[in-house]
Amino acid sequence: MGTRQPAKPSSSLPVFWGEMSPCDHVVQIYKDYAELIDGLESFVVDGFQRGEAVIVIVTQSHLAALEKRLMRHGLPLQDFKDRDQFIVLDAEEALKVFMKDNWPDEQRFEAMIRDILGRAHANGAHRVRAFGEMVALLWAQGHVAATIRLELLWRRICDREMLCLYCAYPRIGFTGDASESMREICEAHTRVFPQPA
Q1: Residue 195 confidence class, pLDDT cut points 50, 70, 90
Q2: Which of 9, 44, 184, 190 could lock 195 by a disulfide, CB 3.0 to 4.6 Å apart?
Q3: What domains can you pick out in the chain, each with its CATH number?
């Protein structure tokens, strides 16, 4: 396996999403709630505009905010959901599917993701992008090693399935320099945005 290129910062979201390759594994370190929802909204809308299937694994509060934003675009969300172009999972419930003794069970995780990707591809979507918030929940609970393990499992899936994955962590969850305290997490990704000041 070749040496992974270091994560690169970006500041212009519309351009950033358009530059992503099919197997990019992107992480956002966000300052506040609005910054997260802005990023998630543009990520999902860009996917729909490109005819991709979009998977979001989010908390209920973030899903409510996201769907309110998406409705403003006049998107037929229910139609997208009915044909599995927009697949939504609750992040806390998804963790329960594959976590065992506070550690990701690889086989259970792989089975869950295979099922979701199968649904996304079933109606002809050639490309799939996903947003996952499970890692941020694990990190917030203090399960640092489990978080890194889950990121690495995701990374393997991104490479194998040509899946573009976007993760996000709140900046407030880290002490000192965020990029340093998240060094291992950042190294599991192909890109980081925005780079912390």
Answers
A1: low
A2: 9
A3: 19-191 (3.40.50.300)
